[in-house]
C-alpha cells in the first residue's frame, strides 16, 4: 500500500540523509525474516523515517520497526481508530490545544506544543488525548522529515483532580512507544508552568518508565522563558514568540489533521492485514 508523503526516497538520498544501501538492506531483511506483525513490504519513504530515527543504524532500525508494529498491535485503544471526527477526539481537541509549530530548532527538531484549553478535570479524558497527541506527530509538514521531535507542554490549569484521571497503563504504553517505536527520534518533553500537582504526577510516571526515558521529561516552574531553548520564531506570542496566537496556530494545525485523515484510515487497514 502506498502513502502520500511530501518527500521522496531519491531526494533524501541526494541530500545524503540516508543511502540506497541502507534502504535496500531493510527491504531485504523484511522479505527474508518476515518479522511478526510487520508488513512484508514497507514503502521506501516510511523506511527512511525509521532509518532517520535511528541515525541510519540499520540494526537499531530493525528493532524500531518491530517495536513500532508490535506496540500498535498491543495498544489498539491508542493507535487504532484515529478518526479526528470521533466524538472523543473532538472532545480532546476542546480540552487541549494541539499545535505543530512552524519552523524547527537549530537541530532540525519538530516542536509539538500542547496547552490546556479547558481546565475542568471532568472533561479530561486521558486515552483520547494520548491518541490525538500521537496523531499530532503525523501531521507534521512532512516535506522535510525532522531530525527529532520535542514536546512543549504548558501545564497552566493542571490541578489536583487531574492527577486522579491519569492511568498508568495507557501512559506506560504511550511513553514506551515514544521511546522505542516511533519513526522519529523522541527528544523529550518540556513542561512549563510546573506545579506541585505535576510533580506528584511525575512520581507516578517514574515508577514504570525506564530511567533514560524519564530523564527526557523536564519540568520548568512558572517564570521560565521557553526562548532559552526554543527559537522565538517558532513560539506563539503567548510565550513571547514571534508567531500568531495559540488559537490561530491551533486552527491551522486542525487543517493539517484533516489532510492526514485518509492516511490514518489506510495505515490502520494495512497494519491489520498482518495481525
TrEMBL record:
SUPFAM superfamilies: CRAL/TRIO domain, CRAL/TRIO N-terminal domain. GO terms for molecular function: phosphatidylinositol bisphosphate binding. InterPro entries: CRAL-TRIO_dom, CRAL-TRIO_dom_sf, CRAL/TRIO_N_dom_sf. CDD domains: SEC14. Residues 89-247 form the CRAL-TRIO domain. Pfam families: CRAL_TRIO. It comes from the Eukaryota. One of its GO terms (cellular component) is membrane. PANTHER family: ALPHA-TOCOPHEROL TRANSFER PROTEIN-RELATED, CRAL-TRIO DOMAIN-CONTAINING PROTEIN. This is CRAL-TRIO domain-containing protein.
